[in-house]
Amino acid sequence: MQKLIQRALTLGLMFLAFTARAELPADYKVVLLTENFPPFNMAVDDKNFARDDGIDGISTDIVREMFKRAGINYSLTLRFPWDRLYRLTLDKPSYGLFSTTFTPERQPLFKWVGPIAKTEWVLLAAPGNNLSVKDLKSASQYRIGAYKNDAVSQHLESQGMAPQNALRDQENVKKLLKGQIDLWATTDPVGRYLAKQEGVTGLQTVLRFNSAELYLAFNKDTPDEVIERLQKALDEMRNDGYVDEITQNYL
Questions:
Q1: Is residue 158 one of the residues assigned to a domain?
Q2: Rounded to whole angstroms, how far apart are CA atoms 171 and 210?
Q3: pLDDT tens digit at each of 251 positions of the chain
Q4: Residues 232, 150: one domain?
Q5: Three-state secondary structure call for residue 27
Q6: Does residue 13 lie in a domain region?
Q7: Is the same domain home to 217 and 114?
Q8: Where is the secretion signal located (predicted)?
Q9: Which domain holds residue 92?
Q10: Are residues 229 and 113 in the same domain?
Q11: Contact 43, 49 (CB under 8 A)
Q12: How far is CA 182 from CA 163, 179, 204, in A?
């Protein structure tokens, strides 16, 4: 009798799992958006527009595998600027955006899958610059460049600071070298990667002021089934070493 009950329970759970997985319509598709944020997501040809196989990077490879394992269809587009992608994801059901830094302020705005990767927030100075700051408060006396609607910029603004926001983070490399800003608030290793692309090395790390985690952020109307299946796939990928392998391949 006990075996019959256990078998019935097992069959019931299998049926529930099957029906839960079948909740999504057959033609359901997630619209994924990303930007040039190397080495996490970037266009293969370094341009500001790319689709599907024209996009690579740590987060891109991880996200692709997540959707494959979860059995969910998607389209992937890299565009510019981040500010526009951020607002589209806020407004459009079943839109997803990566790599998005998770913050307490953003938490209620999206549904989240992650973390995909970890970063640090830094203040960088031009090569040979001897600026010294002990915290953000002491840094506020300087002209700080940042990236519009990026989590780093939003954090500075939440602290009562007024960074000079650029539509492309690469612009801050040139501003720094020209003396138009004193410090560049950015993400490590992204900032160093972007600077290298511009032919600039030797930037000085003046302050590390936060560590952050990168996620896949979804419009709040995205079905919970999508979030649960993708999170399960990511957890499996982390446990079987796939996430570490991809990260090491790029870094």
A1: yes
A2: 22
A3: 545 445 544 445 444 444 445 589 999 999 999 999 889 999 999 899 999 999 999 999 999 999 999 999 999 999 999 999 999 999 999 999 999 999 999 999 999 999 999 999 999 999 999 898 999 999 999 999 999 989 999 999 999 999 999 999 999 999 999 999 999 999 998 898 889 889 999 999 999 999 989 999 999 999 999 999 999 999 999 999 999 999 888 86
A4: no
A5: coil
A6: no
A7: yes
A8: 1-22
A9: 30-118+213-249
A10: yes
A11: yes
A12: 11, 6, 11
Distance from C-alpha of 86 to C-alpha of 100, rounded to nearest angstrom: 9
Please tell me the number of Cα atoms within 13 Å of 247 on its side-chain side: 13
Task: Note whether residue 18 is domain-resident.
Answer: no
Tell whether 84 and 148 lie within a shared domain: no
Task: List own/partner pairs for 178-182 with CB under 8 A and 24 or more apart.
Answer: 179/126, 180/143, 180/145, 181/143, 181/144, 181/145, 182/125, 182/129, 182/131, 182/142, 182/143, 182/144
Angle at 152 between CA 47 and CA 111, to 5 degrees: 85
The structure's pTM equals 0.73
- Identity of the residue numbered 122: V
Q: Do 148 and 196 have their domain in common?
A: yes
Q: Which tokens hold the place of 219?
A: 């419009």
Q: Largest Cα–Cα distance of the chain, in whole Å? A: 81
CATH number at residue 156: 3.40.190.10
What lies within 8 Å, CB to CB, of 246 at 6+ separation is: 58, 61, 62, 65
